[in-house]
TrEMBL record:
Comp. bias (Low complexity): 355-372
Record organism: Streptomyces mirabilis
Signal peptide: 1-21
Pfam families per UniProt: Prenyltrans
Membrane-spanning segments: 384-404
Lineage: Bacteria, Bacillati, Actinomycetota, Actinomycetes, Kitasatosporales
Gene Ontology molecular function, alphabetical: transferase activity
Region feature (Disordered): 353-374
Protein's UniProt name: Prenyltransferase and squalene oxidase repeat-containing protein
Length: 411
């Protein structure tokens, strides 16, 4: 999914859309005017439900690959914050004071914290946001999408990322002696069954846990104390297996094992709406790649990344900035080149969905490219310097310009 939010909120969105449909098509009714898109916002679709989320992902992805976002894009995000520190999904009039009717939520708030903390210079905003998040922590140590809502794996994980982004240890943030890690471990499905190791989004009414791939991808990253961008770790030598989830790290490895198994058949994850045929879930597949890389198993995500290279272009174009951001973050985490992703420059495509960046990373010079290439072996195992030597001996006199931007090879 592009926007991680609670099932209740998604359901409410559907209900709202259904309720409004008859009025929109009633005889003589005028269609609702398209919302005006702020000049600093990424994307051209209605931002009502995902404005802050998609902006945060876009800025975070740009920062990850060395792009400095436009000042007005950053200012727009910071300006969405309410006085109490929380963020809503979108506020059309950010100059108006937030009140009880302003639907602030933990996901938008946490995503904004992660983006603003990464960019730097926004300690005041992130400090207030984290203080609000701490104030609405549930007794089980986790968070729901809205303040006071039942804890879920996705919301708890994105809050963990926000805490870590400002240098706060998630394990030290507790309520009634329970930390967010306790909440995630409680949502980890015990080993032994077909879905052992996966995370549930929430328990059902009877307390039963059902595997949820989106929740699992989020919880693997969250259980390791990382944020939406993940953090590629040194490859883990131990084979993936499911063991007793007696720690958040163990629960994360269990979740990674589940994701590898879920990806094995088609190299991607699937989603389905009730009564609809299963469809590829591009965003969740990208999230699973970030999760595996963060857990130290990026090599096992290589096939999924190749699948995304081949199949994700139309999805990203239709979905907009958050989709491009997810692909950029996945490519970076899995050591693929987001600027040469199946022949596409994801970074350029992301940048084109919003205001022009303030600056782009410098292109490598010819001498730097040659020096970098000289340190490596080509695919045949022959030294680049040996090839250059042969050229010189032959009197060809051709200079070699070796690009440092080839897609990084998988371990």
């Amino acid at each position: 999914m592009i926007v991680r939010r609670s099932a209740a909120v998604l359901a409410a969105t559907v209900v709202i859309g259904t309720a409004l449909a008859p009025a929109a098509v009633a005889e003589g009714a005028s269609p609702s005017p398209a919302p005006a898109i702020p000049s600093g916002l990424y994307g051209t679709t209605d931002p009502t439900y995902d404005g802050v989320w998609r902006q945060s992902l876009a800025l975070l992805a740009q920062h990850t690959v060395g792009v400095k976002p436009a000042a007005k894009a950053v200012d727009w995000l910071a300006g969405q914050q309410c006085a109490n520190g929380a963020f809503a999904a979108y506020r059309a009039d950010a100059s108006a004071k937030c009140d009880a009717k302003t639907m602030v939520d933990t996901n938008s708030t946490s995503a904004a914290v992660q983006a603003l903390a990464a960019l730097g210079g926004h300690g005041g905003e992130t400090g207030k946001a984290v203080a609000w998040l701490k104030s609405v922590q549930n007794k089980d140590g986790g968070w729901g999408y809205t303040a006071g809502g039942a804890s879920d794996a996705n919301s708890t994980s994105v809050v963990i990322g926000a805490l870590a982004a400002v240098g706060t240890k998630p394990a030290d943030v507790s309520k009634d002696g329970k930390s967010p890690y306790d909440a995630l471990v409680k949502l980890s499905i015990p080993c032994g069954g077909a879905d052992g190791g996966a995370f549930a989004y929430q328990p059902d009414k009877k307390g039963k846990l059902a595997a949820n791939a989106d929740a699992t991808a989020a919880a693997v990253v969250g259980s390791l104390g990382k944020g939406l961008a993940g953090e590629p770790l040194k490859p883990v030598a131990d084979p993936l297996s499911c063991g007793t989830a007696d720690s958040p790290e163990r629960a994360a490895q269990n979740g990674a094992a589940y994701l590898v198994k879920a990806l094995a058949k088609d190299q991607h994850l699937t989603s389905a709406m009730p009564g609809a045929k299963n469809q590829p879930d591009y965003g969740n597949t990208a999230d699973a790649v970030v999760a595996l890389a963060t857990a130290g198993h990026g090599d096992k995500a290589a096939d999924a990344m190749r699948w995304l290279e081949t199949h994700s272009a139309q999805w990203a174009e239709q979905s907009g900035p958050a989709a491009y951001a997810q692909l950029v973050l996945a490519a970076d985490a899995a050591t693929f080149d987001p600027r040469d992703f199946g022949g596409r420059d994801l970074v350029k495509q992301l940048n084109a969905t919003g205001p022009a960046p303030a600056s782009l990373p410098a292109e490598p010079t010819a001498s730097a490219s040659a020096a970098e290439a000289a340190k490596k072996k080509d695919d045949s195992g022959v030294s680049v310097w040996w090839i250059i030597g042969v050229g010189l001996v032959g009197g060809i006199g051709i200079g070699f310009l070796i690009s440092a931007r080839n897609k990084k090879q998988q371990p």
